[in-house]
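Message: I would love a firmer grasp of how sequence relates to backbone shape in proteins. Thank you; the sequence and its tokens follow:
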Amino acid sequence: MVCVVVDKWQVVAAIDFGTHGTGWAWATVDAVNNDAHRRIINYKADHRGAPVVYPKNLSALFFQDGSVSARGFEARRRWVRARSAGESGIGYAYAFKMMLKPDAYHGDVPRGEGTVRLADPHDARHLITEYLRGVYQEVITDVGKRDYRPDHIRWCLTVPAIWEQADLRLMRQAAVEAGLPDDEDRLLLAIEPEAAALYCMVRSNYVLGTDDDREFLELNDGGLASRFMVVDCGGGTIDITAYKLGRAPDGSARLSEIGQPDGGKFGSEYTNAALIDDFLAARLGPDVIAKAKADCAADLQALQDQWEIEKANVAVEVIDGAPRIVDPVMLTVPPALWGLLDEPTRRSLADAYGSQWGVVVPEADVQKIFDTMLDPMMDVIRKQLRTMARNDGPATGPELLVVVGGFGRSEYLQARIAATFKDDARVLLAEDPAGAVMFGAVHYCYNPSVIRARRARFTLGYQASVLFRQGVDPLESQFAGDDNELYCTTRFHRLVAKGQSVEVDFARRMEVSAASSQTDSVVVRVFETPDDENPEWVTEANGKLLGTVTIDLTESIGVPRAERTVELYFYFGNAQTRVRAVNPRTGEEAETRFEIDYVR
């Protein structure tokens, strides 16, 4: 995969903002880095307070007296210490990205504690702004050590595939408020599975079920297009979609979407919540857990930290064709939490653990915690396989599943996917699952043209005035034109159908006329609807107004309606769709932009 140098940018930088962790990386734009396989990417892996070296910092904020006092793992450490000391005026926020879609939460994800309010998407936007402000400063400081200025940088911010346009808009607004450029050419949005796919095209991937075999995502023998599914297993969400890898006219590889973005909130963080709220609440008692959350949060956090390490490496064996967790997880109980237990509970725990100060999570319970998340994940993968066949034809051989994301490091997760789909697919694991999205976003920022096409998640169109149909069109939409004709003013004119594959930078030109010879402007209203078919009117209940563009026509008042035309240009396929209106008589232009839900 080779990139054409963009002279405007000397540096490309990506921020992979995740539910559990956030990382950043950047690369210079130069002759060496034009070759993606040789591209040198700089990133930070030594985050203050982190238990291990890792490319992500914790997505957490610590507040004192209403101001951000710490970010990342250090924020969690400071919060636990201050709360245990009984300090006032403190607050803690974690996993707040998920509050941009507050439709289905459980457990302790996301969290707003102390003075932090986290009740709706606007609260989340404020927290995201505060967090990204710190990340932005960290990146420009690092880039600045090489004598580059902020205006030398093109940025890329990752977003989940399942997000809708309202979520994307809030994320972009938060990023701009944090200091990132308010310019669509300098601030790109990269879809997380899309970015991961780019990384897997550049770096070799492990083939699960083999003795360390490796392979790249590449064209099949003879240059034929190949297709694959990306299973992005993150901290909060699982994002799944599918792509076809083809060849551009210049010979370079290009990605086109053939899947339907899907997923859900069954990421790694929910196993942490299940350990505390389900297993430990049942084993130690719900009152003990409630008191521990209030009085010894540091001890609960220490247990979760142990679990975070152990759960990625639980012993797995395939028994009768099904993966099984065969060893328990042994956790040390910190002193303050142990002190909350009654004597019978302590004796029971000690008998199972072999000594004091420990708790055993039996293998069956470990597997139950995992399967609560993995069972629905398998259903989503099955659904995506059907979507691939529907959109791109039946498979001619085993499909290809590519696993990325921090949760993808779990050996049990890998084994479940491989065993469940052994007859239908081969499973690859990214070389660096946790960093795949972050590094892939740098590649996308360097060369966005590698993404060739996206599928529209909704039907898109604009409000048009057309001849009124008696007995069909709503009477309230009726308008009498100065040509003595009756018009319906709320008709939906479709531009893109739901599920339609749309080339990046695809443009459509339309002409519309003023409603009458006396109107002083034309207002174009763009709508989307989840309907598969072409809706009749923009006023239907499931239609949503995306944006408007207004063009002045005062120069032609009194001119016959048919001669008062306006040229409309619609530009599709990017994260933002652009609508431009031109008055051909004066050359005046007006424009609006908005995010569109593409099947990315």
